[in-house]
Write a structure and sequence with these properties.
The complex is a heterodimer. Chain A is mainly alpha-helical. Chain A is 72% helix and 1% strand. Chain B is mainly alpha-helical. Chain B contains 12 helices and 2 strands; from the N terminus they run ααααααββαααααα. Chain B has a two-stranded antiparallel ribbon. The chains are: A mainly alpha, B mainly alpha.
Amino acid sequence: MHMADALISPAAGGAMWAATAGLIAYSSKKVREEMDDGKVPLMGVLGAFIFAAQMINFTIPATGSSGHLGGGMILAVLLGPYAAFLTIASVITVQALFFADGGLLALGCNIFNMGFWPCFVTYPFIFRPIFNGPATQTQGRMLTGAMLACVVGLQLGAFSVVLETLFSGISELPFGTFVLMMQPIHLAIGIVEGFVTAAVVGFVWKARPELVTHDSNPTYASPNNMRPVLIGLLICAVITGAALSWFASANPDGLEWAMFKTSSHEELANPEKGIHASLLHLQKKTAFLPDYGFKADGAEPKAEAESTPSWPAVSAGTSVAGLVGGALTLFLAVIIGLGLKRRGNHSK
Amino acid sequence: MLNIDRNLFDIGRMDTLAMGDTPLHHLDPRAKLMTTLAFIVAVVSFGKYELSAMIPFFIFPLAQIAKGDLPFMYLLRKVMIVAPFALFIGIFNPLIDRETLFRLGSIHISGGWISYLSILMRFALTVMAALTLIALTGFNTVCLALEKLGVPRPFVVQLLFLYRYLFVLTDEAARLARARSLRVFESNGMGFKPFASMVGHLLLRTLDRAQRIHIAMCCRGFEGHIPILRPMRFGIREIRYMTFWAMVFALLRFYNLPMQMGLLITRLFT
């Protein structure tokens, strides 16, 4: 479920970075307010535990494939949502930096997809109401809560991946196909994750019950004090969604783009999208990188597309020029790199 | 369990690289972090059919690797390990986008293949940049830079803690898994029940360890945050480094150098 830098646009990555940075700041503030400095090493060591536990694989019954722990829900149960969110964010950061598992720009997306949903949505709104209902807490309720919370959390996470990829407009996957690909896979993963979470939490519950049943503690999120965060995020989502949709539709797709290649101006050749022309002005003001949708997607590929009629006649062949120039640049880059290396060795 | 040991070795190796002694290693981590981020934003801001203009960007990771004395093949291998994700998601582009984009003689190349190559190139560039950042800087130093740049302290402390105990706990997990695999006869993976109780035990040990650490830290005067004493200096060298690369990125972002060069050369021959 880790997204890579290669598939997202700066606008989508930047928006998710902003949302995640806000959540981290808010959670940090909450953790600091709790003033429980015993939690500081606990968070750190539990983060390392998630890492370690992810390296132990088990066999999924009846399939023969193997799975491992995701861990978001376990952290939320043991630490409460704020500390758990920080812990998940730190785990994903380390994965991004050391294993290149998810990129740096995509870090915001990844932390949001894998941290926000379990910590701030499914834990307080699904797991806790089921587990801490009016009746006594039982294994069965715990299993139901963990299962539902994991499944819903992963579905929401997977759907976020789809939306972020879609808004970025780098991958050609149509919405429907991508959703049909992601959701069932993550349903299966969610069920497995639910069983694992329930098993591990159940084990700890038997051995150290005070760790699991600490809900009298008022600092854990009640739906009440989550409201400002949720509303803020909703507003963020709507604004970014609206801004990003301009991006998505302003990028010409393959077909439109093929029609433009003879005309000189993108907007002129596109009268039925007149509304976009009127939005251009607004978009130029609001866009993260204003020329992203135009210069890069419109102008330059157009130059490349004035294709050569046949191989020997390279006179107008900008595509061939692109290839030759590209190869040359790569060559030069390698030469410069080697040169720097040699000079470095000499100066030693 | 070879897997666990190899992962550990891998993290250790990156830290060893970060202990190098080149001018790049001594640069203020903030400068390196910001430059790397600027690089990634510049690369991913290209349109999806862009290919040739992206190639010159390889100069940044290559120069870092060369100047920082990093093992190129090792980093390349790390890039390859995570490549399947981009390969898999990207492969739908050529399947769906079949519009011919440009022709080379009688070969028609569709927009999908161009954008697929573009995704792979972005992927290689961004992953290489991130890896060289860590290999030149080291994780602890990146954390310090993050704190100086205004990341909330609890999060930075969390990152430092996580990193410190990563090795200890992964070692413990590897020991557990090894002990189990030595005591079973069939080697086809572990069932669900032993897995749950193994991970549960690991978790209990982890919690005990956290308590011990906390007591030990309290004995040494811990008050909720880790004081960080190492001085960081943002001097003329850092400014030079950042402006140089910022100019390079801006130049390469807005002028398609390979295309210009290629035009020049093809014109020579006609």
